[in-house]
Amino acid sequence: MTGRFRPDTMLRGMVFGMSFAVGLTFGAGPGMAQSTETGTGTGTGTGASESIQTDAPAPAQAQDPAPEAAEPSVVAAGGDATSAVVFMYHRFGEDEYPSTNIRLEQFKEHIAELTSGGYSVLGLPQIVRALESGEGLPDRAIGITIDDAYRSVYEQAWPIFRANNMPFTVFVSTEQLDEGVSNYMTWDMVRELVKDGVTIGGHSQHHSHLPAIDIEAVKAELAHSAERFKEELGFVPELFAYPYGEANADVIKAVKEAGYKASFGQQSGAMSTESDFTYLPRFALNEHYGAMDRFKLAANSLPLRVSDVTPGDYTLTRNPPAFGFTLKDPAPDIACYPSDGDATMTRLGDERVEIRLDGPVASGRWRINCTTMGPQSRWRWFGMLYTVP
Ligand SMILES: [Zn+2]
């Protein structure tokens, strides 16, 4: 997978009235998320990428009247919206790690956008509760998550979030803190955050590639990290993020049985009342995918409602995957963008979309994003991330 746009794929896509972009693209257009998690595990490749539609117009910006700008986070839940957008950061101002870092000037632009009016930055537990219960949320509800508990969260991000009264959640792999790895927070720092109202979530013990290890080892990681949270913080978190966004049916079951109420992957898209709460989407933000056009596009995105997604497991048992889904809303102009592989899309009637690849995709993680223009020039978005053995 190289190039930004493959004419042959484009041509095939065009047959069905849509275009495909394949491979890594940067910058322009209805942006994409790319997320390459680091951590202590040995990565199964850094190719986690999403492609972006390069030919679409920039989305309209929020036009709602500005709420009290000083208190963006105290907006009560409740409202008619049935979706929310959750962002994922890792490092702040650690420019030597561009795939997991956000530069401070980019981060400050994000904060400026979120405080510009039109958004409600809410705590993740509140968002999960509201959508799971069907209670509803304000339009453009935003959740902020940070994975891995790097030291720069404490030193760089927290003061800025605090100054803007913005809630956020940190997903912590306990072993890095237990070992006192120098660029991670200490437990003392995490306790300070908790005291200040920051939500802590689980992220396994060793930051393992969970689908790649024995299920008993997965359970042991979950049990050990729960014990450490209890000892250090006095509670066990209720939210979980799969390291690298990698999961399969057994891992999901184990996480659920460990008591987690909701769990997040790293696939792009807006979460909604209809989401799978054991594998919720997030938009990754890093240096490559942290530009303002993409940030605004993601922050304003809406769910693309689908059902009967295949493959049903989040780890591929067959490669190339036979990817397909059924649209719940009309989407005549839907376009899909795989991170790897030459794809052909077939529409079966108005509702069913089937995508086939001309060969196996690379091991690691395979993403596919499907978008269509929704109301108010806001993109409807459905993304999937599959772990590829
Ligand atoms: Zn992580």
TrEMBL record:
Domain NodB homology: 140-389
Annotated localization: Secreted
Keyword Hydrolase: yes
GO terms of molecular function: hydrolase activity
Pfam families: Polysacc_deac_1
Stretch list, region Disordered: 32-75
Keyword Signal: yes
Record key words, sorted: Hydrolase, Signal
Coiled-coil positions: none
Skewed-composition ranges (Low complexity): 55-75
Domain of life according to the entry: Bacteria
Primary residence: secreted
Family that this chain belongs to: Belongs to the polysaccharide deacetylase family.
Role according to the record: Is involved in generating a small heat-stable compound (Nod), an acylated oligomer of N-acetylglucosamine, that stimulates mitosis in various plant protoplasts.
Name this polypeptide is given: Chitooligosaccharide deacetylase
Upper lineage: Bacteria, Pseudomonadati, Pseudomonadota, Alphaproteobacteria, Rhodospirillales
